[in-house]
Amino acid sequence: MLGDADFSWMRNYGTALYMRGPFGRLFLFTVDPRVIQRLLSAFEKGHLAVAKWRDIIAQNGGIPVVLNVHSWLARITLDAIGAGNYQMSMDYDLGSLQGNENELAKVYENLFAHAHYNWGDADIVFLDVVGYLPEWIIDLLRNSPDKRSKQMSLLAAGKEGGKDIMSLLVNANHWSATISTEDLVAQLTTLLLAGHETTASTMNWLFYELSRHPDIQIKLRKEIIARIRREVLRYHPIQARTTRIAGQGDIIPLSEAQKTTDGKTITEVAVEKEQRTIVSFDAYNRLTSIWGEDAHVWNPERFLNDNGTKTKTGLGVLSNLLTFSSGERSCIGWRFVILEMQSTLCALIPNFKFSSPPGNVVIFRVASGLMLPMDVFL
């Protein structure tokens, strides 16, 4: 029976056990509460938001209030990445949920929306002329530290001896000439960007769909079910597409025959060396041949079966979803996203009812590096 081995290990060896797995890999088996609290502490930020929201409602006399959930979810995920004691965290208390003044938190608030959507005339002109600038000017612009890089450099200062991702990178920088300071800052910036706004915006889409489907919200309140989480990952992939450059020419067979514009039927495509290929996560996750005729409908019930698909593709790291990409360059933090979403759901859903704000508000999807929800008041 499932769990029998765990029970046996606990009876015979206590609450913590080191064991060797495949290829000699060392594992720690534990049921010790303090160890578990240490390992999972980063995923408790949702409960801080619960306390804050209760205070806001109490100050309003117990009457329902309109909150900017997007901003709160961004703080939850940012604090979770900073405070964790595991290798995908920075072991740094940002305190954005507590209202602490933190320059890093300010810099990353709505960073993608500001960087990719809210462009002024000067930004547009710069993008048009940058391709005509001399190479030495391009190098100067590329290597000058911006505000984000300075903040990451401050965080990295003095981080030695720890097991979090920042300490590991800083130590590697000390012992290896292959990691420059610029590379270190770039790695930390990428990890923070990849784990912060992606998770926050995915949860934004989740709560948006729940506010539009109160019946499913009631079911979810009775039981936090994984299919809700999977469906929002399918329906609202936070990255719309990715690109790959072919290292060599190839002939790739198609899973389904396609008709060309001149009426011919093809069963394979040719890819030339150094050809750039665009992979659409958005379209794949709505492919009717995989997800069924209701692929364009938000329907968590599709995951009542094992993977929610009518055809197994073997793609992706979770349930045939392409949201986290696939293969050796798939998202390294996808497990963090899943755990953080589950933890936040478990904290917020039992305590609050979510509904659309008053007024005629239209939410639409904007590709601003990530698929962000933008609102328009009509």
From TrEMBL:
Gene Ontology terms for molecular function: heme binding; iron ion binding; monooxygenase activity; oxidoreductase activity, acting on paired donors, with incorporation or reduction of molecular oxygen
Metabolic or biological pathway: Secondary metabolite biosynthesis
Top-level taxon: Eukaryota
Binding site residues for heme: 331
Cofactor(s) needed by this chain: heme
Swiss-Prot/TrEMBL keywords: Heme, Iron, Metal-binding, Monooxygenase, Oxidoreductase
Family of this protein: Belongs to the cytochrome P450 family.
Record-linked PANTHER family: CYTOCHROME P450, CYTOCHROME P450 12A4, MITOCHONDRIAL-RELATED
Protein name: Cytochrome P450
Lineage of origin: Eukaryota, Fungi, Dikarya, Basidiomycota, Agaricomycotina
